[in-house]
Amino acid sequence: MLQKSNAVNIKAILLAAGSSTRMGAKNKLLLPYQGQAMVLHILEKLEQLFLQDILVVTGFEEQRITAALAEKKVRFVKNPYYSKGMTSSIQTGILNCTSDTEGFMICLGDMPFLSVEDYQLLLKKFKETASLGARIVVPTVDEKRGNPVIFSAHFRDALLMHPAPNGCKAILKENENGILEVALKNKRAFFDIDTEEEYQGGLSMEN
Predict the structure, then answer these.
(1) Which sequence spans correspond to the domains of the chain?
(2) What is the CATH number of domain 14-201?
(3) Which of 78, 111, 120, 165 is the most buried (most CB within 10 A)?
(4) For the chain, how are helix, strand and coil distributed in percent, rounded to 5?
């Protein structure tokens, strides 16, 4: 059973700003998944983690995204520079976190197979290693790294100044000694949806 604990102030930053260019005319985050928009399906898992705050970073089709999540108690923050890449959305989320935030969990809006238990394992590892200070918790499946990644507040400035447009892998590479890997048993955890084929394939995996 999941236990409610706010001992460590971790904020979830759910990235929902991308333009889904590989999906064609469709916004992949709004595609139906298990009877609801995919981004809502993911958010409802994050709600079960008892975090102090969940920030949803919007950009492309902002009004449609916020409408899909209208009934949820989350903070929406708009990234006006979303077209520059995912890093700008990560930075927008971090800039809107309170100064007492101890960890940033960067969550992607196109990974519906991550389970509540997967997220909880990562949070547990982060909380258990609070005394280490600077640390990055990274999930693995069959020794391959994926998302979501949790950065301790030590990396706030590095994340905000990171120049690469499409993610923060370089920060991981530069800080290998601070990385704590968590092996997930869920073999489908890292399956993300970028194309129509992947979407249909994801649906078939659920049947």
Answers:
(1) 14-201
(2) 3.90.550.10
(3) 111
(4) 40, 20, 40
